[in-house]
Specification:
There is one protein chain. This protein is α/β, with parallel strands linked by helices. It has one domain. β1, α1 and β2 form a beta-alpha-beta unit. The mean pLDDT is 77.
């Protein structure tokens, strides 16, 4: 899992025990690629809270468009509040196939 929220990342890691990469903010794909360097990760679920103030269009169009051609399988998971992490279907997500 990948998130741009450190609190959300820690909650996911502690609650459901899945690997999480959390950033305080994501500005470019280089940050993500550097974190993924020397790993065998190919499937990424980007988890983010539903927040209208957040610039998700920027993140998806500017950051993820660089990762898709590199062979990463990108999905996104929107949550409304932190309790959603406890839901049985929390790991269900939506595939990001077409970006910009």
């Amino acid at each position: 899992m990948l998130t741009d929220n450190l609190i959300l990342g820690n909650l996911i890691r502690e609650t459901i025990n899945v690997p999480v990469i959390a950033f305080s903010s994501i500005a470019n794909s280089y940050q993500i690629l550097k974190a993924l360097d020397n790993t065998n990760i190919k499937n990424i679920i980007f988890t983010v809270r539903n927040n209208r103030e957040q610039k998700l269009d920027y993140i998806i169009n500017r950051v993820f468009k660089d990762l898709i051609p590199l062979g990463y399988n990108l999905e996104t998971k929107y949550i409304n509040n932190y309790r959603d992490i406890l839901a049985d279907n929390f790991l269900d997500s939506y595939k990001l196939e077409k970006v910009a």
